[in-house]
Amino acid sequence: MASWYPSSSSPQPQAAIVLLLSLEAMLSLSARPILFPFLPKPRLHRLFLRPLSSATASALTPPSPTTPAPLEHADPTPLFLRPPTHPVPPSSLEAFRLRAAALVPPSAPHLHRHLRWFLADASAPATDQAPPHHLLRAPLEELEALWLAHVRDRRPFQYVVGNEHWGGLVVALRDGVLIPRPETEAVLEMVGAVEGFEGGWWADLGTGSGAIAVAVARMLGPHGRVFATDVSEVAIEVTRLNVERYELQDKVEIRHGSWFEPLEEVKGKLMGVISNPPYIPTDDLPGLQPEVGWHEPKLALDGGKDGLDHLLHICEGLSSALKPGGFFVFETNGNKQSEFLVDFISTKWSSSFCNVEAVLDFADIKRFVRGYHR
Of the candidates 303, 275, 276, 274, which has an alpha carbon nearest to the alpha carbon of residue 288? Predict the structure, then answer.
């Protein structure tokens, strides 16, 4: 999906420039010209991680130094989980809505949807009677800063509201954790197709937000279990939050460490291994969309020189981790990676694995590799 950004060299009608500057002054956060991301609702597909044209700012260039710093006393709790304890008069909320909507150009209607969702997540549940005050989950000052960071600094909407709807879940998120993509939901269908999956032990390697671990755990029977591992302490914290929100502490065991390292005592006992590891080649990182490259953790994106560093490491550990008949599935960067890995596994470990194949995502890209331990 192409996107357009006005630059300082682009001809702009004088009236429009005056309007934009006056609107930004109303928000009292910066005098820097506003840049609008004309992008779809950012359930940011992995397909979205394609290189941009050279005219687009590098994703390794940090946001402008004039970007407003986070509010000193801002609550780190995801916005949608905070209690609605900030009363504002209806007139003040409407004034904010109008200011925020005025920052959205006609060619970016998805941002109007984002604004509706933003206000819904930031507000107390609606009641039958109009209250004298609206109860918000954050002060208006913080909401204005969050909204401006989204429309100007291209901060992903999921980080703004603190969640993503994924796999039938509302997954809590925060900065420092990869946003789960819609196509990754396909692994849930593949897990559900494994005979006897309900009673098995599963590993979610590089769990991130814990989305896969939580979704799989909800599918399991009373004896099933998921081991969720991640090297990132932030990911461990967010996974723990999501596991507790869905009351799955008895089914998901969270372990801090790299890939298989925290799973020594369950090696050879796992029914399945699932992973969505970093797989973007290092040289491709500068071409990622700013929503990704500026804001999502490099730790969860960078797959090394050819994008295969972590994928190959996982392949090396599969035979000792899985029990006989065990299943594996992992996500890749697409066709070439998947084809290489299918050939690599089938050739190097032909006596250990069977039915190794690439699986298409909803865009007919070979997004996944799956197979079985003999």
Answer: 303
Categorise residue 116: left if φ over 0, alpha if ψ from -120 to 50, beta otherwise. alpha
Name the phi and psi angles at 359, rounded to 5.
-125, 135
Tens digit of each residue's pLDDT, the chain (374 residues): 333 222 333 333 333 333 333 333 333 222 222 222 222 333 333 333 333 323 333 333 344 433 444 555 667 899 999 999 999 999 999 999 999 999 997 877 899 999 999 999 999 987 776 678 899 999 999 999 999 999 999 999 999 999 999 999 999 999 999 999 999 999 999 999 999 999 999 999 999 999 999 999 999 999 999 999 999 999 999 999 999 999 999 999 999 999 999 999 999 999 999 999 999 999 999 999 999 999 999 999 999 999 999 999 999 999 999 999 999 999 999 999 999 999 999 999 999 999 999 999 999 999 999 999 99
321 CB-near residues (< 8 Å, 6+ apart): 203, 260, 263, 266, 267, 268, 270, 273
